[in-house]
Amino acid sequence: MKRALFASLAGLALCALVVGVLAAQPGRIVVPADKALLIVRVPTADAVVKIGPFTSAQRGLERFLFTPTLAAGETYSYEIEASWNEKGNDKQVRRTVTFKPGETSVVDFKKADGHGDHNVGKALPVGKKTDAKDRTFLFTYAGTVKDLKPGQTANIWLPVAVSGPEQEVTIESKNLPVTDSKTGTEKQYGNKSLYFEAKANEKGEIPFEVVYQVQRKEVKTDVSANLVLKPTPQDDFKRLLQPDIKGPITGKPLELLKDKDLPKDQFAAAKVLYDVVNTHMKYSKEGKGWGQGDSVWACDSKFGNCSDFHALFISMSRGNKIPAKFEMGFPIPTKRGEGTVGGYHCWAWFYPDKKGWVPVDISEANRNPDMKEYYFGNLTEDRVRFTTGRDIDLEPRQKAPALNFFIYPYVEVDGVTHPQEKIDRRFAYQDVK
Asked: 238-292 pLDDT, tens per residue?
């Protein structure tokens, strides 16, 4: 039986239609089993596309639209209207498209009488092959410790990028002021660091450089198809349900959920948390206080950078008995080639109902609303991971208290933390063909 979706879902709100711009082709897009994907092709990039009362904000010759949740076994229909200007004349065309849950349908307004319309059917099965993208690049982690006395000794720890399910990493070269550096592994999360002691040169400086080759894979998740990252030996789930120093699991972060009825299914519950954080906060580096990953501060300020977004998400997750962890690395510009990288980027993972690890990148979703649905469960290949977790004790142990997080060089001089503003940092990438 065919059902008109807007008639069957009375009172459908604008936000109920999830819109995602996806750089992919039919058959390569992961379509949830309880939704359908509509691909609308139009003659001009500025054509206006309407589906019932909803007007798409997307632009371009192809528009990618996910439906709301559909009932299994039902056939649905939409009336889609496209309008554009053709040689000075306004044109308006309506088509009816039918679809079922888990399928992709194409509506082609570039062809007359609907000859280009067709149903692609089931998308590429997830869990067997996903056509995930990958990217290979060199990443340079370099800097100079400054404002030392000539000959003064500094203790220096550099985070080390390591291989895992989503990336393969090798060190291409090291340019350090000493030959006896060593790699240490801290016990809590298994993070690795390159440690060395060096004396400042005649300028009162200690330079360093490490160049990595990274092959990074796009992460795609489908819990129903068991396409999730499995636990590693370093995953301490007891710790991943506990608070961080700046990430409590009671109080204000949980108060943001007091009017929410969280589903019992932890995957669905995490989606609610994701949406609450994304709605509550705005990505901004205005003023002071941002960048500490302080979830209580994030509740009050309602803005921040990636560490603030994901600290809040992790507080909410752990507070609702969903294990979650924090990852830090660097974003790689999407444009292929070479250039500088401004600073760190972080994201989070949660572990729903012991099914496997699922990633979120809420700050990027906030900055790129068209990617909101993508960043729940998926990560682009344009990044490199260095460390996991917070409140970190290095190996060998630093004199100072546990580090809030570890991504930039950490330096001690005479047992005292050397300020970050006295360390020049230089990060760069170069794609490898």
From this structure: 999 999 999 999 999 999 999 999 999 999 999 999 999 999 999 999 888 999 9
Contact by Cβ (8 Å): 214, 161 = yes
Local structure of 376: helix, strand or coil: strand
Among 266, 239, 201, 259, CA closest to 390? 239
Give the DSSP H or E segment for 214.
strand 206-217
Indicate the residue type of 225.
A
Residue 94: phi and psi, rounded to 5, are: -115, 140
Of the pLDDT bands very low, low, confident and very high (cuts 50, 70, 90), residue 14 is very low
Judged on CB neighbours under 10 Å (0-12, 13-18, 19+), 161 is buried
The H or E element spanning position 129 is none
**Mean predicted confidence (pLDDT) in 167-183:** 95
Residue 329 has pLDDT above 90, yes or no: yes
Gap between the terminal Cα atoms of the chain: 52
402 secondary structure, DSSP code = P
Length of the chain in residues, anyone?
433
Model pTM greater than 0.85?
A: no
Q: What is the pLDDT of residue 6?
A: 42
- The interaxial angle of helices 306-319 and 266-280, nearest 10 deg, is 140
Name residue, tokens 């301490």.
Answer: 236
Which long-range contacts link 71-75 to residues 24+ away (Cβ below 8 Å)? Answer: 71/101, 72/33, 72/34, 72/101, 73/100, 73/101, 74/1, 74/3, 74/100, 74/101, 75/1, 75/2, 75/3, 75/99, 75/100
User: Could you write out the DSSP letters of every residue in 146-170?
Assistant: -S--TT-EEEEEEE----BTTEEEE
Higher per-residue confidence, 256 vs 81:
256
Name the helix (H) or strand (E) containing 184: strand 182-185
Spatial neighbors of 72 by CB under 8 A, at least 6 apart, are 33, 34, 101
For residues 407 and 328, the answer to whether their CB atoms sit within 8 Å is yes
Q: What is the pLDDT of residue 226?
A: 67
Q: Are strands 37-41 and 103-108 parallel, antiparallel or unpaired?
A: parallel
